[in-house]
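The instructor's notes for this session suggest beginning with a concrete chain rather than abstract definitions. Hand out the sequence below and ask the class to guess, before any prediction is shown, which regions might be ordered.
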Amino acid sequence: MARHSDQSIIVTGAAGAIGFATCEILAREGAKLLLVDINGDRLAERAEALRSQGAHVEACVADCGEESEVQRYAQAAIDAFGRIDGFFNNAGVEGAIAPLHDYPLDEFDRILSVNLRGVFLGQRTVTQVMVKQGAGSIVNTASIGSERGLAGGGAYNAAKHGVLGLTRTAASEVGPLGVRVNCIEPGVIETPLLNEVLEQMYDGDINKGLKAIGRVATLDRCGKPWEVGTVVSFLLSDDAAYVNGAAWEIDGGALATIRH
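After discussion, reveal the predicted structure:
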């Protein structure tokens, strides 16, 4: 299926599990991709893996929490492809687990710099390009933590609530100008970032943690990165032409129920 044939799409956090799984899907569907991540070595590996599959891929190492670097990756996409049709604004970090009253201030600032400031900077910069084009689609990565309180994850939770607000505000502002802005709300997705959190929560027993936390979903399991990527691909595409300002839950039914 060539859903994204000849479209240019930026993916931040592209070296991570969800970012790369999404890139694989977008590449198969015909997209030209600019991969962005702060981890240069891992990013180069990801880009080469996609090129070996025949994908049209460029890569840009950048800190998504720094304005000049966000502007640099946006310009890199324009230089490479001439325009920006889609943007998966996905870069993020999990952070430490601690109650808010004991949460380290430097860690709080670090999490918000990437997970909220970085999303804002990316959205603002790319939206300016898309408004001039008169078209484009943005998908921000929020979380089930955008809708609920998550004990121990105060900084992450606060940032993801903010991403939901940014998404809804932008959708109301630029929808009439031809730009759609939506967000996804992944639940418990099996990624290295989740494993780091579970290692803290379950004394190093990640498998025990995956089994326990997967029970929050009605499907009794954690999700897979590609299950997020398929939804992102849809939201970025013209198939979702009448979807704007939506918060798309990808959580196995966790938010819909009171379960565990």
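Then share the key points. The longest strand covers residues 179-186. The chain has two domains: 8-187+225-249, 189-222.
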